[in-house]
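DATA SHEET
Item: assembly model
Revision: 1
Owner: S.N.
Input lines:
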Amino acid sequence: QQQVKQSPQSLIVQKGGISIINCAYENTAFDYFPWYQQFPGKGPALLIAIRPDVSEKKEGRFTISFNKSAKQFSLHIMDSQPGDSATYFCAARGGANSKLTFGKGITLSVRP
Amino acid sequence: DVKVTQSSRYLVKRTGEKVFLECVQDMDHENMFWYRQDPGLGLRLIYFSYDVKMKEKGDIPEGYSVSREKKERFSLILESASTNQTSMYLCASSLLALAGLAFNEQYFGPGTRLTVT
């Protein structure tokens, strides 16, 4: 049973465009929703995270939008750059100090 | 800077060998995790530990065991390596999150690519 589902599976965007990655979850006990970014040859690193009592969080060009009723959240990358080309994982946490459940990841390619 | 180091970047082992993957973190984190990463399957949790000598099974613990004798070190053990354990193995650590409002970031090591032939 996949508790966190990402879409699309891959994404190609032109430089300067908007990249949008979606995640859906099933477990209403999830209490934190982070996004991790992974470059080739590196481990994933936290990009941005949101709590379910907030509908949007923005950090620079990266924004998480959260829809609690639909059990969905998405990552928007504004003014996408070739340096943003990486694998992106959404995740969800099942309560304080519990484990993270990760989505399958999506490969983003930003064309120059 | 938080640093999570893994003993090897690349490892090649034969079927049936006992394999040890070592992970060390330098930030006094209580939590440590072992994941495997496979194309199309994302990150899957194998085992995690909240404290020294404590361990909890993750989603795919079969064929693996772990050891945490010291707070900074978390070892993953493949008792008898098999070809289906060929994968990228990632270690992570985080602070203990006692309050629900706190999110304690998991810091990942660079990974060990294990090939079992």
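QC remark: The mean pLDDT of chain A is 93.
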